[in-house]
Amino acid sequence: TDTLQVGELAKKLNKDTSEIIKKLMGLGIMATINQELDKEAIELIAADYDVEVEEEIIVDETEFENYEVVDDEKDMQVRPPVVTIMGHVDHGKTTLLDAIRNTKVTAGEAGGITQHIGAYQITNNGKQITFLDTPGHAAFTTMRARGAQVTDITILVVAADDGVMPQTVEAINHAKAAEVPIIVAVNKMDKEAANPDRVMQELTEHGLVSEAWGGDTIFVNVSAIKGDGIDDLLEMINLVSEVEELKANPNRTAAGTVIEAQLDKGRGSVATLLVQSGTLNVGDPIVVGHTYGRVRAMVNDLGRRVKSVGPSTPVEITGLNDVPQAGDPFMVFADEKKARQVGESRFKKQQDAQRKESSKLNLDDLFNQI
Ligand code: GDP
Ligand code: MG
């Protein structure tokens, strides 16, 4: 809006309405308190008080919510897949993630010290793969509850000596609901009691039929502890990734999702972001959930400082005014002013919501006391 009522203008200038009306009369404008003034009249009056008129930038929330801006097909480029590992407790998720990271990251990137930032990237046969190393279930439930979809492929880990368990089924349901393709890693093949056929049989009942049995689900036998089958598994990830034709436009302002965030004693708010489209640069004005700022520094999964990162890359950033939450969307804005306005508007909304929440609690407390 670039009009204001006389009364509103008086309030903004901190003057009596009658005084403004008098000034307007002097300018040949006969006005009442509710009269709408156009931009020119507002500027004239403001200039008279030596006040500069700043145009209000309308905060377009929809722009933020629908941050998956539709890109032109010709601008889309192949991007690495983002992989989550899920499965029943103790079936070897953490061991498998470590095995993949150890065989690939340290070998290829000599001198790099792996940092825990909630995600890491490896290179297999010249192709990058991003692994989320937050517990798979949490990644799915908290992220999806917030409307974020970050996973392209799920590795379902099933221990060959234990078979399908409750959390295995839960993981299958999460992946199916999100329409994310599943690759089954039958783990602990080194064990005496390993029975991969039983795992195949049991998974059939949940709609996962192996290619060997005429279905279309990829099964890979692995031993996370010995490192057996890891290369095959990575090969299959690359294959599925190609079939999925995962693409993003790297040549636009960045948008994506928070993987994890916390308050660091020395560095302040530290957030791991997964860039999903565009390129994120140091210095970019950014809104992250209800927080905002400028990207002060970026550190990758090897603890190295980086200046810019493209799609499917996880990176730890500092420079935010507050700590966002896992699953929050982030978006870079063309200028800092707009980022601050959108950030402040979102921050206020979040606080209002919290205040409402706590006043509800207070009422409840009151009733409890009665
Ligand atoms: P998570 O709960 O799914 O993350 O499982 P962990 O990775 O913590 O593994 C649970 C236990 O299984 C640990 O004691 C691991 O050492 C063991 N384990 C994991 N993978 C293998 C494997 O391939 N072979 C054997 N024998 N043990 C394994
Ligand atoms: Mg674990």
UniProtKB/TrEMBL annotation:
<feature type="region of interest" description="G-domain">
    <location>
        <begin position="81"/>
        <end position="229"/>
    </location>
</feature>
<feature type="binding site">
    <location>
        <begin position="87"/>
        <end position="94"/>
    </location>
    <ligand>
        <name>GTP</name>
    </ligand>
</feature>
<feature type="domain" description="Tr-type G">
    <location>
        <begin position="78"/>
        <end position="247"/>
    </location>
</feature>
<comment type="similarity">
    <text>Belongs to the TRAFAC class translation factor GTPase superfamily. Classic translation factor GTPase family. IF-2 subfamily.</text>
</comment>
<comment type="function">
    <text>One of the essential components for the initiation of protein synthesis. Protects formylmethionyl-tRNA from spontaneous hydrolysis and promotes its binding to the 30S ribosomal subunits. Also involved in the hydrolysis of GTP during the formation of the 70S ribosomal complex.</text>
</comment>
<feature type="binding site">
    <location>
        <begin position="187"/>
        <end position="190"/>
    </location>
    <ligand>
        <name>GTP</name>
    </ligand>
</feature>
<feature type="binding site">
    <location>
        <begin position="133"/>
        <end position="137"/>
    </location>
    <ligand>
        <name>GTP</name>
    </ligand>
</feature>
<protein>
    <recommendedName>
        <fullName>Translation initiation factor IF-2</fullName>
    </recommendedName>
</protein>
